[in-house]
Structure prediction request, 1018 residues.
Amino acid sequence: MDYASGSPVDERVLEDMKPYFSEHFGNPSSFHSYGFKALEAIKNARMRVGGLIEALPEEIVFTSGATEANNLALIGAAARYKNRGSRIVISSIEHISILNVCKELSRQGFEIKYAPVDKDGILDLDALTELVDDKTMLVSVMTANGEIGTIQPIKKAAEIAHDKKALFHTDATVAAGKIPLDVNESDVDLMTLSSNDLYGPKGMGALYVRRGIRLKPIIIGGGQEGGMRSGTENVPGIVGMGKAAELAKVEMRSEADRLTKLRDRLINGVLDSVPESYLNGHPIQRLPNNANIRFSYIEGESLLLSLDELGVQLSSGSACAAKTLEPSHVLIALGLKHEEAHGSLVFTLGKYNTGEQIDYVIQQMPGVVKRLRAVSPLTPKELM
Amino acid sequence: MDYASGSPVDERVLEDMKPYFSEHFGNPSSFHSYGFKALEAIKNARMRVGGLIEALPEEIVFTSGATEANNLALIGAAARYKNRGSRIVISSIEHISILNVCKELSRQGFEIKYAPVDKDGILDLDALTELVDDKTMLVSVMTANGEIGTIQPIKKAAEIAHDKKALFHTDATVAAGKIPLDVNESDVDLMTLSSNDLYGPKGMGALYVRRGIRLKPIIIGGGQEGGMRSGTENVPGIVGMGKAAELAKVEMRSEADRLTKLRDRLINGVLDSVPESYLNGHPIQRLPNNANIRFSYIEGESLLLSLDELGVQLSSGSACAAKTLEPSHVLIALGLKHEEAHGSLVFTLGKYNTGEQIDYVIQQMPGVVKRLRAVSPLTPKELM
Amino acid sequence: MYSEKVLELFRNPKNVGEIPDADGVGTVGNPVCGDMMTIYLKVEDDKIVDIKFKTFGCGAAIATSSMTTELAKGKTLEEAMKITRADVADELGGLPPIKMHCSNLAADALHEAIKDYRRKRGEKV
Amino acid sequence: MYSEKVLELFRNPKNVGEIPDADGVGTVGNPVCGDMMTIYLKVEDDKIVDIKFKTFGCGAAIATSSMTTELAKGKTLEEAMKITRADVADELGGLPPIKMHCSNLAADALHEAIKDYRRKRGEKV
Ligand SMILES: Cc1ncc(COP(=O)(O)O)c(C=O)c1O
Ligand SMILES: Cc1ncc(COP(=O)(O)O)c(C=O)c1O
Prediction:
């Protein structure tokens, strides 16, 4: 139940990719029939990825992943449009790739402002309106957060940005394929997509770049991807992401229904059976596949380890935070205390999760929590 | 015979990658058994890629390809070591990803100097010595050129760089797996590698970064790859590149012998059977799999098209140049006239090429050239 | 990348050759740029009765040369002057954008050859 | 990531609990940082005759607590003061570098508990 940090590739996707590893190994820039075949395949994938978010094929720039797409969006726009202003406004719960890029841009002289979220993780639109001023060049608010699952009002955020002639970027890494997205309806200028989150291959992502917007490339060379991203195209990867986008488009609605049911069964089941457990994030404005639950008095990693031994794979926050041992900045932004943040678990459900698995977790959870609470010096007597 | 612009993935490589698309889809940063499995796999691949060039595993930074590795090497070093000097010296026949990065760095205030090559494409070491001065920060000379196959004296070039305390980078994209490489013996600081050129998957590359050297990352985020390259690791890609490197190490010697024989059979066969055809690049100091042949009075693309219709896939220069219709800057650097450069064909042989294929090309070539020469206004009467 | 029509004309170009006693000759492009084209005309009663070409260049250059000469053959000079690069590209079922330059070249060479003919006749062109 | 020994002690930690009438108590870390540990001692004739711990923290923190109390049990206070984080990590078959901090914590808590005991006895510590 840790689909957020890595998903298996859908077999139908892999099937589509296979010929491009072997027979159709051409370079789309090559001048011969193998090359043309690759070019066709890329065109087709561009259409499919565009289709998922109602974008034109030529508005899709393929990258090596969501991190690169986020970097390209922010660094590329900052370099290109710096004459429009020096301020960049982002939400306080963006992914570390946005946060760290902003730190770098701040070193380069940009002024970074962080729009707060409420206790459920929903962007404070009034605060955003105040922060976005005439010298704001770019606003970036994620479509949904991968840790707490909260879905953001990006259409309104885009409006606030555009009122001040700022560009609007949204990181839809974890939202795409889970909820319907429409770049025109939401009036988004730049949108980050990830392949693996769609059950496509890893090492692939894309940036939607609205027609008319030019970005300074961060990877320079042969001028592939309309000059915005150089390097020989990862043809099987692109084909795979295309197929994954197509499948997501078709299957999203029914899969979302199924996952929402599982999610709510999980949340209700755990909250009911484990005393002093709480849901992080918004109860309704949340991704169909995300549950983030906080357990008082115990620490997340020891929970992960216990559950891993029971065959349940989870995460205690972003996979990156696992490395620094810091509590999640997202949970802190919700106003949680550090020790509360430490005791949170992220459940991200996916294609292969079943009701039985959910019930197994609900059944195991009380025992695991009880055992760890027994070891903890913080647990009140009455819970032991 | 266009392996330079794209190679099929070795079946043994694909076999090794497969489990990482499906069962082992974990994120190496995740704290559970799926994650640890991925972490192990990456460690192993790092060892294998390091092994190919006698580097330590921790000296390998995985990237999305050779272009990104070249960008990281030059931009990353320039940002980090600019206090060492403002001059960067590269050969005049570097790949477009090096050339275009240098153009960008020159806009940022670096002074770029181009070291010439002789008529066979071999770096002029005396000229290099003159260009590398005390304020030179970095020297970059490719290990071998993909278009003309010429192998460069990188050990001597590294020595010239180090004499002036400059860093030395070499783009070994097309050399790795074809000729033995040893970063210690050659005293290289940074080396670019490409996965697909080793029959590994596309969308993967690596940069060797000598221990003690730090680069400013160009893709910022979760701090993967020792902070030098962020983004969730492309685990199947990394595993594939690792396997490809291992296979290359084992099979390189015998495959190089085989290809050298095929290459020479091709060169001699074509030069003998087609009047006014000439070899571009050095006859001996060249990659075992490269032949670059010039045909007077006709243009390369029409040659490609004719051969493609006969089932022979070739390139007329770098795949990138195909897009701009410019003659190859490499051939111009050899001192060829534009019209001579236009009439050149690149043959890059690979694993699946056979003697029969070579003989077929030798047999078809005179007819194809004759037909096109008959259409050309430049062809002298006596050749018709 | 190329239409079937382009490939067909590339394989079997019509009107390849020179006309030694041509009434008009037009050459455009140059081998340095990778494309060069010469068109030879025979004119009778202001009509193009014979036309031939020689081309150094890409597949599209050869196919457009062939198509241009086909379009021009039998036309009056005035009609032939009106053949545009768009006409040529249309007849070929379209050309990749990067190759539009080539179809330009063939029409230009035709126009140059007609001007050469008129110049030789003392007309002002 | 963790050695089998660490996992084993995480699953079945020894000496978990409190000693209500402990002779010495040492607490280090704090829940804000994600790790907190308390060690309780019973001392007789300068020897640790009983020892218990409570730990809020990661798997390594729980395993090192268990291992530290095992190492200390039965030792004289002087010997127990010499238990270092390296000893604990060694006994556990190594710890991931990022987790070395945890083994530090357990040894520190032990030393704090011993100092507490000595302080209570009026010794200078
Ligand atoms: C919201 C969000 N954006 C971006 C990323 C970065 O994705 P990747 O590491 O695949 O580049 C993640 C990864 O977890 C994410 O959750
Ligand atoms: C010498 C050299 N370096 C770098 C590259 C760039 O490789 P990629 O396009 O796979 O990133 C190439 C590609 O042809 C090359 O020949």
Observations:
- Strands of chain A lie at 60-63, 87-91, 111-115, 136-140, 167-171, 190-194, 205-209, 277-279, 290-295, 344-348.
- Chain A touches chain C at residues 31, 36, 39 (CB under 8 Å).
- Chain A is about 40% helix and 10% strand.
